[in-house]
Amino acid sequence: xxxxxxxxxxxxxxxxxxxxxxxxxxxxxxxxxxxxxxxxxxxxxxxxxxxxxxxxxxxxxxxxxxxxxxxxxxxxxxxxxxxxxxxxxxxxxxxxxxxxxxxxxxxxxxxxxxxxxxxxxxxxxxxxxxxxxxxxxxxxxxxxxxxxxxxxxxxxxxxxxxxxxxxxxxxxxxxxxxxxxxxxxxxxxxxxxxxxxxxxxxxxxxxxxxxxxxxxxxxxxxxxxxxxxxxxxxxxxxxxxxxxxxxxxxxxxxxxxxxxxxxxxxxxxxxxxxxxxxxxxxxxxxxxxxxxxxxxxxxxxxxxxxxxxxxxxxxxxxxxxxxxxxxxxxxxxxxxxxxxxxxxxxxxxxxxxxxxxxxxxxxxxxxxxxxxxxxxxxxxxxxxxxxxxxxxxxxxxxxxxxxxxxxxxxxxxxxxxxxxxxxxxxxxxxxxxxxxxxxxxxxxxxxxxxxxxxxxxxxxxxxxxxxxxxxxxxxxxxxxxxxxxxxxxxxxxxxxxxxxxxxxxxxxxxxxxxxxxxxxxxxxxxxxxxxxxxxxxxxxxxxxxxxxxxxxxxxxxxxxxxxxxxxxxxxxxxxxxxxxxxxxxxxxxxxxxxxxxxxxxxxxxxxxxxxxxxxxxxxxxxxxxxxxxxxxxxxxxxxxxxxxxxxxxxxx
Length: 652
Fold this sequence. Notes:
By secondary structure, the chain is α+β, with helices and mostly antiparallel strands. The chain has 18 helices and 31 strands.
């Protein structure tokens, strides 16, 4: 099994060096530890001068960035993390310089060479690779690199602190023969930030045993980069749970603890605590499958006793902090139901280090309880009886309410089952006029019924009273469908059902849909995966310029919702029409794929309405909707073939 350096999963405890005197709940242990956990970032910017064959050029490539987790071991400003988290900025390894040089080759050599031939990145991969190889052979070794490394620590209150490495034991590394290198170390680093009052976590004084609980705190990259989470995810640590599952040794005989608690890239250097809120270990590496996928359940920690040994010879006093006793008292009082006293202590903790996420959350909870105290408990016997009766009533009421609301609802799979059994339902499209006119999709063979038309005396529906009818819409909680269904039942149609989830539920189930107009296949896939109400719309008059060649794309692509868009480009000082794009076509995405300016003019041939798709939304669709990705690839392939044909014809 291959192994890779990844993130430490060490757990913090917020208490005094001696630890709390009473038994802690899991909730209390985690609350005490979390404020002391911080995001560590190693960033290396650089100015690189190289000669691609046309004289020296200096560029600033995109920086190299490594993130991990650190935790305050001493509240005066001392943190512990993995050595491999800070190594890129601390020692500036040759591989980091090489990565920066490769980025500079593309920026200084490849892109200018392509532009000189009228090409953009990605248009001629074969030529691009050839230019890159030649430029690398010419300029890579002789390139002059002026690096600007920087280490920062981000607290949960948004405070960004510069950090300095005070002690360093190199990360594990093997040579080409799989043997440990001479600098193979303990993969630990001590950082120092500016003096202040910070939370701190003490170290466990007892060796862990198999089966002991472990709670991992850190900043896994999958959370930091999740497209559905806001920026607060970058400052608040996540918690995962497991147990100590074994004891091992690394390649040079150093002790390791195995745990089944989940970890991922970004947990490196973070704390893993036991139920006593003390750090039991720091994660060193995880296990990978032959395909490079992380295998959870086989993560390895540096034991707390080795962390304590590493701290020897420094000024670090583990677990010591002016913040800890105040925070611990506030948490104990809050969980003990003494809300007024808890509020005073939590305000005191917030004054020491303002706006930490966990402190603010507990402070808000204490304020709510002070303003609205919970009722005093009844005698236990009556309380038990009352709670039991109340539970029966509440759950019975909830079940009855849910049953009553859903008694006429039907999910897409049930509709398909009815069709397959021969009980073919009549599908009624009862979307509001505005919803119907703005979406080109509908269920196959559906009948359009205006919601207001059902109220008219002359309303008729060419459906037998005994036939199943399924209404669908796009209203929240199928409100329009429910209203129309009720009116149809009043008119004598006995088997009226409501499609649960409406049109969106049908498309999310990946069931076929039709378009009201002749949409291209790529347009059909896009509309199936977009919620029109959440999209920005832009309208242009005939002749308006939507975008010009060379414009910054501003992270936007477009779907032609109505009208026709001309695509023009300047050739030899003359604008030439490359083509036209009609309803349902995706335009402007090439600039996003290439991360480059617009490559052509976009002009409204007639009145045009566009739907704006942001880069992050398009990226999510490509990663999660395979059929849409296939349609985009098919269209790009057709463009390449057509372009090659036109060039071959022009060459004759």
